[in-house]
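Appendix B.2, paired examples.
Example (i):
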Amino acid sequence: MPNELSIGEVAERTGLSVHALRFYERENLLLAPVRRTAGGRRAYTEQDVDWLAICTRLRDSGMPLADLRAFAALVREGPGNEEQRLALLRGHRNRVQAQLAELRSCLDLITWKVGVYEQRVAEGTATGVWDPTAGGDAAARG
């Protein structure tokens, strides 16, 4: 069949390992069962590659496997469940936005600490920064 891709080709194109591709298949995360060649080898399609790209981005962003499984099942069912799909995606978006807010807060602290250390190093006053034996106010020491 034209445009069939081997598991190795799909692994190379998606960045997933062969083991991960087999896991996605076992976990029923693909839109359709992977076709097998006469020799028993997996034969993927471009649609499989496109779907795997979506799945990996959702997983990379922290979507729980159960939610991804549910989303894939809804997509496989076809039209008529778009509201359910939307609810899953909105819930995930909300979690990602909360994670981003937490990371921004962490980045703000790190940026402040970098500024303190840069200033202390430039002034030559970095000795004793966060030295518990130096005494005094730890926050003032940097």
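Example (ii):
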Amino acid sequence: MLMFVLPLLAIVLLMMPLVPVYAGITTGKKAKHAIIFNLCAFAGIVLLMIVLPLGGFVSAATDAGSAAAALSTGDGLKYLGAALSTGLASIGAGVAVGGAAPAAIGACSEDPKAFGKSMIFVVMGEGIAIYGLVISFMILFM
């Protein structure tokens, strides 16, 4: 019973900040208590993450015969490098597209013939994220 209630509690705590937002949409009022709901949900999730391991409901221990062997430091650094290459490349692509897309829209509104030229710059910004993803695959699988 407890193994069903605790994940349900986690889902409720994660969905709790949406309550004042939905109430603000349906009533037309701004959601003033959203920050309080966010803090309560965060505190509840943190408390749940503390209680679950202490109560023995989840465990990181594995038996010696299982296929899930402990990771080495090299494996951990490999995953960290892959995550950093994808994440930082995506942030860079967001910055590039955030600057290029409004300029492209402005150029197209003044001269519709400039659409093809302006889209090249937006696509070049998106290419940065793809390069980061390719590098992370190279780190993980080579």
